[in-house]
Design a protein that fits this description.
Blueprint (H helix, E strand, L loop, with lengths): L4 H9 L21 H13 L1 H4 L5 H12 L17 H9 L1 H12 L16 H10 L12 H15 L4 H14 L4 H12 L6 H10 L6
Helix pairs in contact: 2-5, 2-6, 4-7, 5-8, 6-8, 7-9, 8-9, 9-10, 9-11, 10-11
């Protein structure tokens, strides 16, 4: 475990939930580290999300994960596209996003579809739904440098789509819709496979049909 892992968790999540979020306040704390440190710490956070994030509320997690994932709030996720960092580290951290969905979101998010109704849901559903929309991993191009990351993202989305939870499946479909701009044929093939199976939710099926061509909310 990274020597600053606990400090990192407290920095992200151990705050009063406010509007606007705590990290927009004047004099808000910052976490200074190298790009390699960020890549490693993100991976450890996601891999152990089912255990180490239990002490934080859904609202605390939502705000902290928004800070972590959103390119508008921080540059932390940009470390996964940094060519100076070993590809093995970047891939391991990207792969750990599936652990976040399986071990945290699946257990703590409500089974609601955020593109239809954002009331009556856990505070954590926001970042579950928006993760791929706000992350730099949603805009990977098809080139030699980024191809391993692209393959890893498709693997993560495919595995997340198999999680038997509406919010997780919707999030994966949202992710496919985001990356369809860069990889339309691969997205079509992935969602065609999903649509060929038995889908109990009509609205989820409709969302997947729309995402197939990049038409998402």
């Amino acid at each position: 475990m990274h020597e600053r892992y606990e400090e990192w968790l407290d920095y992200l999540f151990d705050h009063e939930v406010t509007t606007p979020e705590w990290y927009w306040a004047a004099g808000a704390p910052v976490f200074e580290a190298s790009e390699l440190d960020y890549a490693v710490l993100i991976g450890e956070t996601f891999r152990h999300a089912g255990r180490d994030l239990l002490r934080f509320s859904d609202a605390q997690l939502n705000q902290g994960l928004l800070l972590l994932a959103s390119a508008a709030c921080s540059d932390y996720m940009a470390s996964l596209k940094d060519a100076r960092i070993p590809m093995a580290t970047r891939l391991a951290t990207t792969r750990s996003i599936y652990d976040l969905y399986r071990d945290c979101f699946q257990l703590r998010c409500t089974e609601t579809l955020s593109h239809l109704n954002r009331t009556g849901r856990s505070a954590l559903n926001e970042i579950c739904y928006m993760f791929w929309d706000i992350s730099v991993l949603g805009c990977l191009e098809e080139n030699d440098e980024e191809r391993p990351l692209v393959d890893c993202v498709f693997s993560v989305l495919g595995d997340t789509l198999k999680i038997p939870h509406l919010a997780c499946q919707e999030a994966a479909i949202h992710g496919y819709g985001e990356i369809s701009l860069f990889h339309p044929r691969r997205v079509e093939e992935a969602l065609d496979g999903f649509l060929a199976g038995g889908i109990s939710s009509g609205p989820l099926r409709a969302y997947a049909e729309n995402a197939r061509s990049g038409n998402i909310l």
